[in-house]
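Task card 7
Instruction: Convert sequence to structure tokens.
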Amino acid sequence: MAGEPLVLVVEDEPAQREVLAYNIRAEGYEVVTAEAGDEALVIVRETPPDVIILDWMLPNVSGIEVCRQLKMSGDTARIPVILSCPPVPRRRTRSVGSRRARTTT
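Output:
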């Protein structure tokens, strides 16, 4: 699927990561996955995605910190980030540079 938009899915739970990747691929997108925040930062530097779906709570480097680092860098600041998180106040997600949050219960 060369030329398709690239989505980076960052999720430490294998089942959730695979379900997200499967459904995104089914919609015609190219998907790359990471299971930790530090791994995601390496992937973004090597192959910048068109959008990132980012779990809030990750091992090594949290999703919050990943989002902050991405939004502070001129090279990655414009990549849209969708935070996947438990219900949190909207102002909390905006404080780290995310425009939207997908909450899970």
